[in-house]
Design brief:
Blueprint lengths: L5 E6 L3 H12 L1 H8 L3 E7 L16 E2 L2 H6 L5 E4 L7 H10 L3 E4 L2 H18 L3 E2 L11 H5 L7 E7 L2 H13 L3 H10 L8 H4 L2 H15 L9 E2 L7 H9 L2 E13 L5 E13 L11 E8 L3 E8 L3 H21 L21 E11 L4 H11 L4 E9 L2 E8 L2 E2 H13 L3 E10 L4
Parallel strand pairs: 1-2, 1-4, 2-3, 4-5, 5-6, 8-10, 10-17
Antiparallel strand pairs: 7-9, 7-11, 9-10, 11-12, 13-15, 13-16, 13-17, 14-15
Helix pairs in contact: 1-12, 4-5, 5-10, 7-8, 13-14
The chain binds NADPH dihydro-nicotinamide-adenine-dinucleotide phosphate and L-homoserine.
EC number: 1.1.1.3
Function: Catalyzes the conversion of L-aspartate-beta-semialdehyde (L-Asa) to L-homoserine (L-Hse), the third step in the biosynthesis of threonine and methionine from aspartate.
Keywords: Amino-acid biosynthesis, Metal-binding, Methionine biosynthesis, NAD, NADP, Oxidoreductase, Sodium, Threonine biosynthesis
């Protein structure tokens, strides 16, 4: 490495990458002062080098040969803002094994195969930073990776997907259905043309895996995360939540605790849930993200801010670039991966949750007793029951106390089979003490 500057290779120059270049340029003097040496951007890999980037970038920097750029001798830090599993994984393992620092925003790769990147970083003695991969601009991974390393984190509960939070906030505010709120999110540029990764919870599940890995010192992948999307949340569900003093959010919940055999374990899930309006996450509106961390000594901590968008995400990338550059100049390293705890993953069936179930039933004698009997049979205790009638039919809204998810799922299955139950209008988990 040249001792008088730190040389950067940028892979990807789209929504995030163009903002990284702009901030590198605009804040050049401050960054130099903070690092103690200037940063120099030596190349940018893209698919279509001739494309207008909306930014004043020297055309000579562009190449389509990302691997060639990574391998150049004059590159100290590789910044990856392309996304996806391959070829990003090959580029980054090549860089790390060669001892180059890596800064990436690639949540999909970290959640699917973070182990390969961490192993390559250990092999090459290189830094791997990825603050932008979860909750965009919010400083969250560094606190989990460093500040809370003297404590024992017990639970992380987060709203980590801006698109779905915008949709659910809009449904809550206006009474709109999912489709109408999604159309609004698309018009305003929050939702992508294909919103599947957001609304089906894949994006949040990737982030949940990264958070759980850091919080519990255990390798957790996206495949370990129980995932349920939010496309089934209806205007009626939101109205029912309101009646209970709740709202509905797509939550990621990572929790440490004993499994059914008493062994310390980790459960990670993503699903829509009702939460009371008094919960700190209930007031997180629009496309904002927030993560609520509970630790034994620290107590409750809340992280809040913009979880997406080119400029906020670039802020997190720039922070990582500064850290990596400082480390290179001082000959130090970022904290390496901490996965010593090797905790087993607890299946969703063992997670203790509460359910809100809305049933359309025949309105006649003995129906309530029969329904209550099904709950009792599966050892699920009922907390509240509300009934509203329409001629021969009635709607029952039942909220349970906490029970293993498997017991609740079996209860719902048996309710479905009853001839007095015309339909099960909705089943939602309830979180946060309502
Ligand atoms: P974009 O799609 O806007 O940009 C992707 C960039 O990668 C483009 O410049 C594209 O080139 C380039 N690229 C794609 N394939 C290749 C290839 N094979 N070789 C070289 N370059 C390639 O993505 P974003 O900027 O939105 O996201 C980048 C990363 O940041 C992703 O991992 C994403 O998950 C993450 N992220 C994004 C956030 C956001 O708000 N956008 C928030 C947090 C994280 P070209 O321009 O020529 O097509
Ligand atoms: N699609 C994601 C969101 C982008 O809506 O939050 C940030 O990861």
């Amino acid at each position: 490495m040249s001792s008088d500057k730190v040389r950067l290779a940028l892979l990807g120059c789209g929504t995030v990458g163009t903002e990284v270049v702009r901030l590198l340029h605009e804040q050049s003097a401050d960054l130099t002062a903070r690092i103690g040496a200037p940063l120099e951007l030596v190349g940018i890999a893209v698919r279509r080098p001739g494309r207008q980037r909306g930014s004043d970038i020297d055309p000579a920097l562009f190449t389509t040969d990302a691997l060639g750029l990574v391998k150049r001798d004059d590159v100290d830090v590789v910044i990856e803002v392309v996304g996806g599993i391959e070829p990003a994984r090959s580029w980054l393992t090549e860089a790390l094994r060669a001892g180059k620092s890596v800064v990436t925003a690639n949540k999909a790769l970290l959640a699917e195969d973070g182990a390969t990147l961490h192993d390559a970083a250990a092999e090459g003695g290189a830094d791997l930073y990825y603050e932008a991969a979860v909750a965009g601009a919010i400083p969250l991974l560094r606190p989990l990776r460093e500040s809370l390393h003297g404590d024992r984190v017990t639970r992380v509960t987060g709203i980590v997907n801006g698109t779905t939070n915008f949709i659910l906030s809009s449904m809550d505010a206006t009474g709109a259905g999912f489709g109408e709120a999604l159309d609004e999110a698309t018009e305003l540029g929050y939702a992508e043309a294909d919103p599947t990764a957001d609304v089906e919870g894949f994006d949040a599940a990737a982030k949940a895996a990264i958070l759980a890995s850091l919080a519990f010192h255990t390798r957790v992948t996206a495949a370990d995360v129980f995932r349920e999307g939010m496309t089934g949340v209806t205007a009626a569900d939101m109205a029912s939540a309101k009646e209970m003093g709740c709202t509905i959010k797509l939550l990621c919940i990572a929790q440490r605790g004993p499994d059914s055999a008493g062994t310390d374990s980790v459960s990670v899930r993503v699903h829509p849930a009702m939460i009371p309006r008094s919960h700190p996450l209930a007031g997180v509106g629009d496309a904002f993200n927030a993560v609520f961390v509970e630790a034994e000594a620290a107590g409750q901590l809340m992280f809040y801010g913009r979880g997406a968008g080119g400029t906020p995400t670039a802020s997190a990338v720039l922070g990582d670039i500064v850290a990596a550059a400082r480390n290179r100049l001082s000959g130090t390293r970022a904290p390496s991966e901490s996965s010593y705890a090797h905790l087993p993953i607890r299946p969703i069936g063992e997670s203790v949750t509460r359910y809100h179930i809305s049933l359309d039933v025949a309105d006649r004698q003995g129906v309530l007793a029969t329904v209550a009997g099904v709950f009792a049979q599966h050892e699920v205790s009922i907390a509240t029951v509300r009934q509203s009638g329409r001629e021969d039919d009635a709607t029952l809204v039942i909220v349970t106390h906490g029970a293993p998810d498997a017991n609740l799922a079996a209860t719902v299955e048996d309710l479905r089979a009853l001839d007095i139950v015309r339909s099960i209008a909705s089943v939602l988990r309830v979180e946060g003490g309502a």
